[in-house]
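Subject: for your reference before the review

Hello V.,

The reviewers asked for a structural picture of the protein, and I figured it would be easier to keep everything in one thread rather than splitting it across files. Below is the amino acid sequence we used in the manuscript, unchanged from the supplementary table.
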Amino acid sequence: MEKRSGDPKWKFWRVAVHLPDPSHPMELTRSQLDLLERLQTVLAGQATQEFTYVTEYLGYLPYGQYCWLAAAGQDLPGEILDSMKFSDLEALEKAGYLRRISEWQNPKDELDCKITYMLRDVE
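And here is what came back from the structure prediction:
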């Protein structure tokens, strides 16, 4: 098929990828910066700077949805999660400190998911 100007079948979309700009840092909250610092400390010295955010619901009361972080097959210390919300991870990703590597959601249970992130060096 030949492209002709004005042909409605041909539409071009411009896609922009926004990487963090150190001269204009995104405003992060104190708790988000604390979470970033704790992640950097725990992952320091590991072969890979990857960790996984895991959620699971046991499916019966009184137990709710459990959330935790794991790296290299081990659960990370619980104090990392102190006052952490999933939106904090999203903010760190948007600011460029984290990169989402993979995401899995159980097709039979929307509350059962695993999201793997990689800690990025942003200077």
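For the response letter, the relevant points are probably these. Residues 7-19 have pLDDT under 50 and may be disordered. The first strand starts at residue 50 and ends at 57.

Happy to draft the paragraph if you're swamped.

O.
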